[in-house]
Amino acid sequence: MILCLDIGNSHIFGGVFDGQDLKLTFRKPTSRNTSSDELGLFFRSVLRENAFDPDSIAEAALCSVVPEMIYSVSASIQKYFGIQPFILKAGVKTGLKVLYRNPLEVGADRIAGAIAGTERYPGEDLLIIDLGTATTVEVIRGGREYLGGVIMPGLNLSMQALDQGTSRLSSVEILRPSGYLGQTTATSIQSGLYHGHLGALREISEGMTREVFSGTAPRAIATGGFAHLFRDTGLFSEIVPDLVLRGLLRALAMNRN
């Protein structure tokens, strides 16, 4: 069994694989002050509560956009599972030709998503849209060339900016509104958040199609916690919630030796 962990700004998203089969997923809020002991006990507990033997974990892989969490998570895996985790970072094998001007700047989660996308659709032009704390768009050409992409505030960050930067606008539930017209402050914010994000992503996708792919639309894949809100909008062909975890699994296989 293999434990894969995607450490994001808001949550640690974990998964347990048996071969290529994803048997379990779980989430834990990210807390930068969490100790390795707390993390280790949590990981073992969540496995036991879901009828998995923690001692069956033979390998582990992780990626993180929170640098200060890497040590505590890695230490928890070593102490509570007795294994050295694989960390997706600069210098490891990815199967990608990273054409970013400074490859060290690319977030490990972005690379993991790109790895999984190219494995899922080898040789194809891809846009990978990750709707999490930040919303990112990754551009992959010909199934191997990682060109770069777009980063913008996610839905929750946008809402927090309204809440914290204004006197009379407060947080609302993030959902897909029934229409464009908001007739209360809450529904007006919800419409702005949703349709503003949708419009931005449409413009970005269309612009990338013209600028990078000479007008031929690439395949678009979505992942991340808010992806379901944009289902059936035409932005993407499918939602793959575990895309980053599958990218970690693939990266681990490429770097075993």
Residue-averaged pLDDT: 93
**What is the architecture of the largest domain at the second tier of CATH?**
2-Layer Sandwich
Largest sheet: 6 strands, mixed
Name of the CATH class of the largest domain: Alpha Beta
Distance between the termini: 18 Å
Task: Give the helix tally.
Answer: 6
Low-confidence spans:
none
The spatial strand order of the largest sheet comes to 6-9-8-7-10-11
Query: What is the helix/strand order?
Result: EEEHEHEEHEEEHHEEH
Question: What is Rg?
Answer: 19 Å
Look at the structure and name the CATH superfamily of the largest domain: ATPase, nucleotide binding domain
Given helix and strand content, the structural type is alpha/beta
Report a brief summary of the structure:
With 257 residues, the chain is of the alpha/beta class. The protein has 6 helices and 11 strands.
Question: Which features would summarize this protein structure in a list?
Answer:
2 domains, Nucleotidyltransferase, domain 5, 5-stranded mixed β-sheet, 257 residues, 6-stranded mixed β-sheet
Can you walk me through this structure?
The chain is an alpha/beta fold. The protein folds into two domains: 2-87, ATPase, nucleotide binding domain (Nucleotidyltransferase, domain 5); 97-242, Nucleotidyltransferase, domain 5, CATH 3.30.420. It contains six helices and eleven strands. The chain has helices spanning 36-49, 67-81, 108-120, 155-165, 185-211, 243-254, and strands at residues 2-7, 11-18, 21-29, 59-64, 86-87, 97-98, 126-131, 134-141, 145-153, 219-223, 238-239. The strands form two sheets. Strands 6-9-8-7-10-11 form a six-stranded mixed sheet, sandwiched between helices. A five-stranded mixed sheet has the order 3-2-1-4-5, with helices on both faces. A hairpin with a 2-residue loop joins strand 2 (11-18) and strand 3 (21-29). Helix 3 crosses helix 6 (243-254). The radius of gyration is 19 Å and the shape is globular. The chain starts with a strand and ends with a helix. The mean pLDDT is 93.
